[in-house]
UniProtKB/TrEMBL annotation:
It comes from Malus baccata. Transmembrane segments: none annotated. InterPro entries: Ribosomal_eL13. Keywords: Ribonucleoprotein, Ribosomal protein. GO terms for molecular function: RNA binding; structural constituent of ribosome. It comes from the Eukaryota. This is 60S ribosomal protein L13.
């Protein structure tokens, strides 16, 4: 007997533990057949539309590691449809996916030849395909407009003395300075133009202050920003 108000130990058997710890896959061949039959029924139901779904754009993958690779995106933006002359309400009816939230400038990949089928057999509208073209249409089973991923190639060059003497770090520092701090001050005084570059700021700081004081009084200073 246990002490105090503790639980009396007892063995809880007869729970058929084998049913909860062992998972069999004996139905795998039947599932394969069932999935194949379902795909065939869906293809017949949506004929002559492609089995892969709507047309999707080509986008770059996320993160710095994979952003150079491309894949199929979700939907096209309204700007992309407008540039091709396709109304946003017409696009889903001809197999083009539309997304009103995305905001990018991807305009390629929309020049596919589309066959517009009749929604109603007795109602012919302008732009519909003729009966002969509809009768000869086939259903696409695989992916249409497949994405081709080009493999980068490495070009071999001969190492010269000029390449050996090139200092990449110094070059990057200079270009960074020219891009972020490429500011030139032009002071029109006595028909002469004096320029102060960022590398000379420390050296000519006092002269720059004097010129700025004079320019505030005469209001003849011109300040220009140059990006290199």
């Amino acid at each position: 007997m246990v002490k105090h108000n503790n639980v009396i130990p007892s063995s809880h058997f007869r729970k058929h533990w084998q049913n909860y710890v062992i998972k069999t896959w004996f139905n795998q061949p039947a599932r394969k057949t069932r999935r194949r039959t379902a795909r065939q029924k869906k293809a017949m139901k949506i004929f002559p539309r492609p089995t892969t779904g709507c047309l999707r754009p080509i986008v770059h993958e996320q993160t710095l590691k994979y952003n150079m690779e491309v894949r199929a995106g979700r939907r096209f933006t309204l700007e992309e449809l407008k540039s091709t002359g396709i109304p946003k309400k017409l696009a889903p009816t001809i197999g083009i996916s539309v997304d009103h939230r995305r905001k990018n400038c991807y305009f390629e990949g929309l020049q596919a030849k589309l066959v517009v089928f009749l929604r109603r057999a007795n109602h012919i509208k302008a732009g519909d395909s003729p009966a002969e073209e509809i009768a000869n249409a086939t259903q696409l089973q695989g992916p249409y407009l497949p994405i081709v991923r080009e493999k980068p190639t490495v070009e071999l060059v001969t190492v010269t003395d000029e390449l050996k003497s090139f200092k990449a770090y110094d070059k990057l520092r200079v270009e960074s300075m020219n891009t972020l701090k490429g500011i030139t001050f032009f002071f029109n005084q006595d028909q002469k133009t004096v320029s102060f570059w960022p590398s000379f700021f420390e050296k000519n700081l006092e002269l720059l202050r004097v010129e700025l004081r004079r320019s505030r009084k005469s209001r003849t200073t011109q300040i220009e920003f140059h990006h290199f």
